[in-house]
Amino acid sequence: MLLNLNILDLAVVDALDLDLDPGMSVLTGETGAGKSILLTALGLALGDRADSGYVRPGSKRAEINIEFDLSKAPLVKQWLADNELDDDSQCLIRRTVSEDGRSKAYINNRPVNLQTLQALSRQLVEIHGQHAHLTLLDGEEQRRLLDGFAGNQALLEQLNACYQNWRQAHKELQQLLKAGSDQAEREELLRYQLEELQQLDLENFDYQALADEHHKLANLGKILGVGQQQLDILYDNDQQSVADMLGHVIHALQELSQYAAELNGVAELLGDAEIQIGEATQQLRRFLENQEADPQQLAWLENQIGVIQSLSRKHKVQPEELPELAGRFSAELHNLSHSSERIEALHADCERLLNQYRQLAADLSSSRAQSGAELQQRISAAIKELGMPHGEFIVKLQTPENAEPQRNGLDQIEFLVSTNPGLPAKPLAKVASGGELSRISLAIQVTTSTDKTTPTMIFDEVDSGIGGGIAEIVGQKLRRLSRNRQVLCVTHLPQVAAQAHQHLFVAKNQNAAVTSSSVRRLSEEERVQEVARMLGGVTITENTLAHAREMLASGGAADAAD
Question: Which GO terms describe its molecular function (predicted)?
């Protein structure tokens, strides 16, 4: 239940602290006094979108605080606990809007995002706006109302989850079937391309090693000729080889070292060089002796490198990337060759999910049909009480055969109404009288609210377009609705105001530099004056006051009679 509403610097309200009681509270005042700003404040606190226009001129920010008692709302308490936002049996919501339009939200003094705030608010307050009868013309809203009345939420969640799974499987299946005509050609191409690549011995593929070997064999003649020349220079030339000349130099320096000992070091270094030249000569000799021209190997290498370069140009990759390309081709071919298995599996999944969906949809249709019959009886009785003695409300439910699955079931739901005997029922959108539509809308809202668990309900001028005795009946219904929940009603009708347990009056103060609005609770005598004002207009007579007292007395007597 809503305990307190505190507003600071919001539009025409500079400061307001309002305590609310259980039962039915009405909010009245002259047109333009600022009644709507209270609902705006509640809407902001409950998660409506904010902008800088809500901040009172001259202020840096607007702030709204609301406090709820959760002692009779166990589901909300559990939700707060699950989200680590609990704080005993109270719930404090705070929303601030800065002058640049940015806003912040808090639940029990913990910052939360707007989605979290809205998720909580839906469990705390239900608001019925003054244009609810227009919203009611929408088919989806009619479906939502029926499912809410029937308590179909859990069944709807199961059905929609099944629908989503079926839709994904069905979409993938259609894509595979559509690609089926091109699949054979693609598989044939991939197999051909893989066969081309596999001739390269991909497991032992080393393009750089092949290129190096080819380069060597192609230049073997030059290698052997030039290599033999260097061997002669180093060692084999009897007249003037490097080895012989170096030997003479070492011998000469050794003889000189008896005169200059420093030359021993030079001779030793040259001796080491002589040894290394000997080893290098032996390695060169062995290399040249082991080289043998192989025209067939050279031809094979030239052919292999030609194939590699041709394939790399064909597939627009570097030669070294051909094994990786073959791997990709192989994976794609595997997927394509197994697509028939995937198609078969998807067919089975779609069939299973479709059967599951149709069973859930049948259960949903049965629930809607049963609850629809009860709902139309209740609403028909309600609209008769609201001045339409021949009114009949009908919930029309049609379920096409073999229809494709869709969200929220297969049923086509439409609310119909007949206002006069002998005339066929028509959709709500074709009801001629705006007053009749308002009364029907109110009957639906009150009837469908009876079974809800929301602790606080707000009705914003939903009684527009009615008056007289009908207005009194509306007030009685709202008062009756407040027996097991809190009801807050903005109204211009004295018949409705007289039924309230608590009467709040909104007044506008235009004497200050900036217009402001205030709200105060009326005493019993003040209530008489306000109901009389609503009845009599400018001039209030004793008869008007007497009538007001009688109306207020009848409001209290209704509880005693029940």
Answer: ATP binding
